[in-house]
Design goal:
Helices cover 39% and strands 22% of the residues. Strands 1, 2, 3, 4, 5, 6, 7, 8, 9 and 10 form a 10-stranded mixed sheet that branches. β1, α2 and β2 form a beta-alpha-beta unit. α6 packs parallel to α7 and α9 packs across α12.
Length: 316
């Protein structure tokens, strides 16, 4: 009898010290990505698949979102992981507009790839610079997107606002392209990667031209947000655009809730880094991204769990 009791005691202690995978702690997480048709949504799906496959007990529901709205969603526990843009996240960290308070729950998980603010007009348009947009019909990102805030700020450094436009449409990329094709909008403004599939779609239907920003306006934008970087869209990026287009941009990155345990974030970071080649097959902008690139300091404090992994592999 004593022998049987000892066996049961040994089994009980073993289960406590070495729980089977089926007894692993459960985490049902939500990840906010970007609008349908952009790069964030499919990339989020690929990250979710990898994490769920490699970390027992973890599920990640992927939802559409937007750069600014995602930071707020993380702060108010509507999600645990999110995509954002460096310029918006830094604004959130310090509680600068459009945020109404400091976003204290946000931690950096990984830096990803650059994004570009782009302004497209028909090639035969008389709009030659942002200064010519006054009184015109614009189509741009929905509110809550970093690109929408950038649209406001670009107009601002030229002394304009939405009130000076004939009409401002806040639409999805596909709907904006439709408006441009039909001639119901005169300029399409968005912040995304290059080449953007929506702009290629538009260029396949009609000839386009891209508006650039001179250095003085780029510096004015950087005064509004030091996170804006000068970016040049190289000639040949889009059909018929045989000139470089200077402007501003920022970085896409992954943020994660400070409330998640270090061990879980360590495992998520490790899984993400291990799957970089596969993620590059899903979104080409991830091609060439290394573990060292993930650790670039963009002004957001890293989660301790991510720091542990990056230090372990010598990336930090």
């Amino acid at each position: 009898m004593k022998r049987i009791q000892m066996i049961f005691l040994f089994l009980a202690i073993s289960l406590l010290l070495f729980p089977p995978e089926s007894m692993a702690q459960k985490f049902d997480l939500k990840m906010m990505t970007g609008p349908m048709g952009g790069s964030w949504y499919p990339l989020g799906g690929a990250i979710s698949d990898a994490v769920q496959k490699e970390i027992p007990g973890v599920t990640i529901a992927v939802m559409p979102g937007a750069g600014i709205a995602n930071v707020e969603a993380l702060e108010f526990d509507k999600c645990e992981i999110a995509f954002s843009n460096s310029s918006s996240a830094v604004d959130g960290l310090y509680g600068r507009p459009p945020f109404k308070k400091k976003m204290e729950n946000m931690r950096q998980l990984a830096n990803l790839y650059p994004q570009y603010f782009q302004m497209i007009v028909p090639a035969d348009s008389k709009i030659l610079s942002v200064a010519d947009l006054k009184g015109k019909i614009l189509t741009l990102d929905r509110k809550g997107n970093t690109g929408e805030l950038l649209s406001q700020q670009v107009l601002q450094v030229y002394g304009f606002s939405y009130k000076d436009m004939a009409k401002v449409n806040h639409l999805s990329y596909s709907d904006s392209v439709s408006l441009m094709k039909d001639g119901h909008a005169e300029c399409f403004l968005l912040g995304t990667t290059i080449p953007a599939s929506s702009i290629i779609d538009l260029a396949a239907d009609r000839k386009i031209r891209l508006l650039g920003l001179p250095d003085d306006k780029i510096k004015a934008m950087q005064k509004l947000n030091a996170g804006y970087l000068k970016r040049v869209i190289p000639k040949g990026t889009y059909p018929g655009v045989d000139y470089d287009v200077p402007g501003v941009g920022y970085f896409t990155h992954l943020i994660i809730s400070a409330k998640l345990p270090d061990d879980l974030v360590y495992k998520i970071t490790k899984t993400f880094a291990k799957n970089l080649p596969r993620l590059a097959d899903v979104v080409k902008d991830m091609k060439g991204v290394t573990s060292k690139d993930l650790t670039m300091d963009i002004g957001i404090p890293f989660h301790p769990g991510a720091v542990k992994y990056y230090k372990e592999i010598g990336a930090l």
